[in-house]
């Protein structure tokens, strides 16, 4: 897929590819384990041996940032896919059926959207306990609503177009019409929402990890690394700078990619000047 002349979107896509490849191949190539403790290197600043320095236990921060990318990207992809599929299916069903079904399901969407997502995720993890699997469940519980509302509104418009009406008259079943005629024509806005939504997932995952409600305790996480570095912010700022930069770069890249996808699918979103950064907020 071409992103046209949107330089920020192209740069975002390249950065995301680099981060993904580093997360996949990094653990196999890095000479130092992210869990290896070496108290003689405690709070050591960046050097040739340790490009990002060492933390309060002498663990290599570069290795931990690379391993943290595995956690954040894996959670981001899993939660986005599950939320996208579940939300799209519910939204399309509500929009296509219309009537009382749509009214009731739209009320459900509104109620779910009214609950603060982060508080809901904290409540789910408090009940289930902190773990990687429970973190994915908590983020999925709060993540499907935006996709459902968007899919519903798009389906309400798509079901009125001529080719859908012709398909109904031709005797095609509702599942066939939804999958063969409506879904392909509403997938573009949903893909834009998914890119921006994944950025929100990574921010929320980092926030929960920062609060100690993330995945496994021993697994390196960008949010947990930020929390660990707060106590040493003045004497060793590199403990927070590098994981914080990893979060910011990943989230900005996803937002730039979302902008590029929007411009690709909707030429009216293009501007005459340089490509802009993302100025929208996704429903979360």
Second rung of CATH, namely the architecture? Orthogonal Bundle
CATH topology: MetI-like fold
- What radius of gyration results from the CA coordinates? 22 Å
What is the end-to-end distance? Answer: 27 Å
Q: Indicate the proportion of strand residues.
A: under 5%
Biggest sheet: strands, sense, closure? none
Count of alpha/pi helices: 9
The total beta strand count reads 0
The number of distinct structural domains comes to 1
Could you list some keywords that capture this structure?
284 residues, mainly alpha, MetI-like fold, 9 helices, disordered C terminus
Write the layout of secondary structure elements.
Blueprint: H1 7-29, H2 61-97, H3 99-114, H4 117-128, H5 132-158, H6 162-169, H7 174-210, H8 222-230, H9 238-265
Could you describe the 3D structure shown?
The chain has nine helices and no strands. It is an all-alpha fold. It has one domain: MetI-like (MetI-like fold). It is elongated and about 75 Å long.
Short description:
This protein has 284 residues and is an all-alpha fold. It contains nine helices and no strands.
């Amino acid at each position: 897929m071409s992103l046209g002349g949107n330089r920020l979107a192209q740069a975002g896509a390249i950065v995301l590819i680099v981060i993904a490849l580093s997360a996949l191949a990094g653990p196999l190539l890095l000479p130092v384990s992210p869990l290896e403790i070496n108290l003689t290197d405690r709070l050591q600043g960046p050097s040739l041996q340790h490009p990002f320095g060492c933390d309060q236990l002498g663990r290599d921060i570069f290795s931990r940032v690379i391993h943290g990318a595995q956690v954040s990207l894996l959670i981001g992809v899993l939660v986005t896919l599950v939320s996208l599929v579940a939300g799209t299916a519910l939204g399309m069903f509500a929009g296509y059926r219309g009537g009382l079904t749509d009214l009731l399901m739209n009320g459900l969407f509104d109620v779910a959207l009214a609950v603060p997502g982060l508080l809901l995720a904290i409540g789910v993890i408090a009940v289930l306990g902190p773990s990687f699997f429970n973190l994915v469940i908590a983020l999925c519980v709060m993540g499907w609503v935006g996709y459902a509302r968007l899919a519903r509104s798009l389906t309400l418009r798509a079901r009125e177009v001529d080719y859908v009406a012709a398909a109904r008259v031709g005797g095609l079943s509702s599942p066939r019409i939804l999958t063969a005629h409506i879904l392909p024509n509403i997938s573009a806005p949903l893909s834009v929402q998914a890119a921006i939504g994944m950025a929100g997932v990574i921010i929320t995952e980092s926030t929960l990890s920062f609060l100690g409600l993330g995945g496994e305790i021993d697994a390196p996480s960008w949010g947990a690394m930020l929390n660990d570095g707060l106590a040493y912010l003045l004497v060793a700022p590199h403990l927070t700078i590098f994981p914080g930069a990893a979060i910011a770069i990943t989230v900005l890249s996803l937002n730039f990619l979302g902008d590029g996808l929007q411009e690709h699918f909707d030429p009216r979103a293009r501007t005459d000047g340089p490509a802009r950064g993302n100025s929208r907020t996704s429903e979360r």
